[in-house]
């Protein structure tokens, strides 16, 4: 028998053991959704702002590349700079797409959690007095049938949420995440390898 506190009057509420057992599947479904912890709002805001920040600076960057192209000494670096600029802009596009997908995922989780919370609360409210008033097995059987209906509704809530999450996951995995190409001479791993080979007496 589960006990709890109701309201400010500190009235002890006793839940029949049968109700606790019958509501357990819904409670497990709800627990699978977690406690609702989200990333810091600043982090999500920063992710959403990436695209705008990059695009605001894009014209200035392209203007600088144009100036470099007119100088003989720097012209060789222009193709690399252009490619890097294009790749950074592509990453900005990814960030712009990813932010609303993450927001949608958290909203889906929150809705499913709220729906399951409501089902759990409603079932307990209806089932507890029925069990306490039961005088026959038929009375208890009706509570079991009621629990089955609520569990079916809970599973439906979970399936809808899973389906939406699958859709979001597919959209995220299909994003173009090619990254930024780093010239071999500027790679950290290449620099470390060169130093190690040098220490061993090998020129790489």
Structural write-up:
- By secondary structure, the protein is mainly alpha-helical.
- It has helices at about 15-30, 40-70, 80-135, 135-175, 190-200, and strands at about 1-5, 10-15.
- It has a two-stranded antiparallel sheet with strand order 1-2.
List keywords for this structure.
204 residues, mainly alpha, two-stranded antiparallel sheet, 5 helices, disordered N terminus
Shape field: rod-shaped
Instruction: Tell me about the largest β-sheet.
Output: 2 strands, antiparallel
Q: Kindly, what is the distance between the CA atoms of the first and last residues, rounded to a whole number of angstroms?
A: 74 Å
Oligomeric form: single chain
- Strands of the widest sheet, in order across it, are 1-2
Q: How much helix is in the residues?
A: over 70%
Mean pLDDT: 77
Number of strands: 2
Question: What is the element string, with H for helices and E for strands?
Answer: EEHHHHH
Which structural class do the helices and strands define?
mainly alpha
Q: What is the beta-strand fraction?
A: under 5%
Describe the secondary-structure layout.
Layout: E1 2-6, E2 11-15, H1 17-32, H2 41-69, H3 78-133, H4 137-173, H5 188-199
Antiparallel strand pairs: 1-2
Helix pairs in contact: 1-3, 1-4, 2-3, 3-4
Task: Summarize the model shown.
This protein is mainly alpha-helical and 204 residues long.
């Amino acid at each position: 028998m589960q006990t709890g506190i109701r309201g400010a009057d500190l009235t002890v509420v006793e839940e029949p053991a049968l109700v606790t057992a019958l509501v357990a599947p819904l409670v497990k479904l709800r627990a699978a959704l977690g406690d609702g912890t989200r990333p810091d709002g600043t982090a999500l805001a920063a992710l959403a702002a990436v695209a705008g920040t990059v695009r605001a600076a894009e014209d200035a960057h392209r203007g600088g590349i144009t100036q470099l192209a007119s100088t003989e000494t720097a012209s060789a670096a222009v193709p690399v700079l252009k490619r890097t600029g294009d790749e950074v802009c592509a990453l900005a596009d990814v960030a712009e797409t990813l932010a609303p997908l993450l927001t949608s995922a958290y909203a889906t989780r929150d809705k499913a959690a709220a729906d399951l919370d409501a089902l759990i609360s409603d079932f307990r409210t209806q089932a507890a007095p029925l069990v306490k008033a039961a005088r026959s097995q038929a009375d208890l059987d009706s509570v079991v049938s009621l629990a089955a209906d609520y569990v079916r509704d809970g599973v439906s809530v979970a399936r809808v949420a899973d389906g939406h999450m699958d859709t979001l996951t597919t959209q995220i995995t299909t994003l173009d995440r090619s990254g930024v190409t780093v010239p071999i001479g500027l790679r950290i791993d290449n620099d470390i390898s060169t130093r190690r080979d040098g220490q061993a007496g090998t020129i790489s």
